[in-house]
Amino acid sequence: MIIKQFDKLATTELRKDILAIAEAGYEAISIPNLIGKTLSFQNGILKIEQTNYDLKKYKRIYVAAIGKGSGLICQQLEELLGPQNITAGVAIDLKHRKLKKIKVFGGTHPLPSQRNILATKKLIQTLQNARAKDLVIAVICGGGSSLACLPTKHNTCEDLQLVSDHLLKNGATIQQLNTVRKHLSDIHGGNLAKFAYPAAVLGLIISDVPGDNIDIVASGP
User: Fold this and answer.
1) In which element (H, E) is residue 142 found?
2) Cβ–Cβ under 8 Å, residues 89 and 64
3) Strands across the sheet with 39-42, in order?
4) Residue 189: pLDDT above 90?
5) For residues 180 and 164, what is the distance between their CA atoms, to the nearest angstrom?
6) More confident residue, 90 or 31
7) β-strands 97-98, 51-54: how paired?
8) Residues 96, 119: contact at Cβ < 8 Å?
9) How far is C-alpha 27 from the geometric centre of its chain's CA atoms?
10) Between vectors from CA 147 to CA 146 and to CA 150, what angle results, nearest 5°?
11) Residues 6+ apart with CB under 8 A from 124
């Protein structure tokens, strides 16, 4: 049961029904359930929905994960693939989480910070170890626009904070906000994939954006 004190809150049949609907919604999007329904791994084959990926053809496997919930997803990946099949990885989430092969850093949200920048540099260092015969599994979740933070050379962390805060307070949509963020960042707008080159990249993207525009989720890294 995800909703705390369900029985105490369900004082009428109508409240009980409403809580049950909310509970079903939470269950449907819980990360363990989502991973369990979407991914499976057997004999070196990672199956995502109806598509198979032969992980045996890659020399090394790295994980790069950003956004709220990315640490828990990385934990599920380690359990699914087995830590022996993951060379290294970095995740930037809201809270630190201790895993066997993937280092999970805790960052700030909704505004970026120097802590996020330091964690992002660790993620990039890991990506730059990847070679042509390697695979990078990129886990992208909502919140990755601020949790992953690397200002362009003409900007500072304070600039990103100021712009983000101004847009948030003036009613910018997530599409508008993340479009601006892309152009102020060296990790978003396709740049994470550039750092992973020449390795192959497999993206696991959990959308929190209406319409599910992949280029908008976490500012399209």
Assistant:
1) none
2) yes
3) 39-42, 45-48, 51-54
4) yes
5) 9
6) 90
7) unpaired
8) no
9) 19
10) 75
11) 150, 187, 195
Locate 181 and state its tokens.
């963020």
d(CA 148, CA 28) in angstroms, rounded, equals 27
Average pLDDT over residues 160-169: 92
Amino acid at 120: T
* Distance in angstroms between the alpha carbons of the first and the last residue of the chain: 34
Q: Output helix, strand, coil percentages for the chain, rounded to the nearest 5.
A: 45, 20, 35
pLDDT tens digits, one per residue of 106-159: 999 988 999 999 999 999 999 999 999 999 999 999 999 999 999 999 899 899
Alpha-carbon distance 47 to 82, whole Å? 15
HEC-encoded secondary structure of 77-108: HHHHHCHHHCCEEEEEECCCEECCCEEEEECC
The arithmetic mean of pLDDT across residues 177-201, rounded, is 95
For residue 191, give Cα distances in angstroms to 90, 117, 186: 16, 15, 6
Residues 13 and 18: their CA atoms lie apart, in Å, by 9
Residues in Cβ contact with 131 at an 8 Å cutoff, skipping those fewer than 6 apart: 59, 60, 198, 199
